[in-house]
Amino acid sequence: MGFASRLIDKFSELVSFLELSSFQKWIEYWAINICHRQHAKWTFTTDYIEMH
Predict the structure, then answer these.
(1) Which residue range(s) make up the domain with 37?
(2) Count of domains in the chain?
């Protein structure tokens, strides 16, 4: 438990150290990337199924 809370403390220090807006942009960037990739994969799969 001590290790986890220390880790969380370090993480929140890091977050406050970084500009929060840039941190949010970074998260958004990754979220959008992952969503797009999942969507592309799904679209490709459904197209492939419809074709065959």
Answers:
(1) 19-52
(2) 1
Cα–Cα dist 18/15, whole Å: 5
pTM given for the model: 0.34
Tell me, yes or no, whether 46 lies in a domain.
yes
Structure tokens at 41: 């994969």
b/e string for 19-50 if b means 16 or more Cβ within 10 A?
Answer: eeeeeeeeeeeeeeeeeeeeeeeeeeeeeeee
- For the record, the structure tokens of 20 come out as 């929060």
pLDDT tens-digit profile of 15-49? 777 666 677 788 888 888 887 787 777 777 777 77
| Identity at 12, one-letter amino acid code | S
| Residue 4 buriedness (CB in 10 A; 0-12 / 13-18 / 19+) | exposed
